Amino acid sequence: AQSVAQPEDQVNVAEGNPLTVKCTYSVSGNPYLFWYVQYPNRGLQFLLKYITGDNLVKGSYGFEAEFNKSQTSFHLKKPSALVSDSALYFCAYPWSGAGSYQLTFGKGTKLSVIP
Amino acid sequence: SQTIHQWPATLVQPVGSPLSLECTVEGTSNPNLYWYRQAAGRGLQLLFYSVGIGQISSEVPQNLSASRPQDRQFILSSKKLLLSDSGFYLCAWSMLDYNYNEQFFGPGTRLTVL
């Protein structure tokens, strides 16, 4: 089955340090991949997506993600973490079936940025 | 620009009572619409999706149902709530045409069944 996985339930990083939230995929062909962020008691917000082309994708709030085909990864990164980045992050894989387009989400990674 | 609304924001209901959650989208037409449930602040479970008025697909057997009476309105219902129906319910929409179009989420409804 095609899927995405987030190997870390929680990531802690000090404010000002670089952060990485990991995502690996098991998808045939050339995958499309998304990252979303969810702040407490809020809906998900779209951060960025990889479709094709440049392996480094830039998104909202200073986040970027690197698509690595050889390692089947799509890690989310930010050079300098802010306390306000503390949230739940989801990697997702879009696919089509039965006349609709759907997203398969990873289980989520809770990011805590420590002041 | 497009916006998506959900109401109510929070709801506390007794076991066995009915449920109706509403989602509306503004600023677009003929969107795909989705209902998700999120338990314990973690993974999302797709409950229903709709590609058009009156067209509902269910992903998992459950105590819930969905309807799409208008192009930009999506309703999640139950005749009798169970304790296990508690959770955070999210509505989302996406454009119909490409599978790399992102989904846009509403603010969610926190449902507590007592």
Q: State the low-pLDDT regions of chain A, or none.
A: none
> Which superfamily, in CATH terms, is the homologous superfamily of the domain at 17-95 in chain B?
Immunoglobulins
Find the structural class of chain B using helix and strand composition: mainly beta
Q: What level of helicity do the residues of chain B show?
A: under 10%
Assigned CATH superfamily of chain A: Immunoglobulins
- Strand percent estimate of chain B: over 45%
Explain how this protein is built.
The complex is a heterodimer of chains A (115) and B (114). The termini of chain A are far apart. Helices cover 0% and strands 56% of the residues of chain A. Chain A contains no helices and twelve strands. With 115 residues, chain A is mainly β. Chain A has a single domain, classed as Immunoglobulins (Immunoglobulin-like), CATH 2.60.40.10. In chain A, a hairpin with a 5-residue loop joins strand 7 and strand 8. The mean pLDDT of chain A is 92. Chain A is globular and about 45 Å long. In chain A, the strands form three sheets. In chain A, strands 2, 5, 6, 10, 11 and 12 form a six-stranded mixed sheet that branches. Chain A has a four-stranded antiparallel sheet with strand order 3-9-8-7, with no helix packed on it. Chain A has a two-stranded antiparallel ribbon with strand order 1-4. In chain B, strand 7 (65-70) and strand 8 form a beta hairpin. Chain B is 0% helix and 56% strand. Chain B is built from no helices and eleven strands. Chain B is an all-beta fold and 114 residues long. Chain B has a domain at 17-95: Immunoglobulin-like. Chain B has strands at 3-7, 10-13, 19-26, 32-38, 44-52, 55-58, 65-70, 73-78, 87-94, 104-105, 109-113. In chain B, strands 2, 4, 5, 6, 9, 10 and 11 form a seven-stranded mixed sheet that branches. In chain B, strands 1-3-8-7 form a four-stranded antiparallel sheet, with no helix packed on it. The chains are: A mainly beta (115), B mainly beta (114).
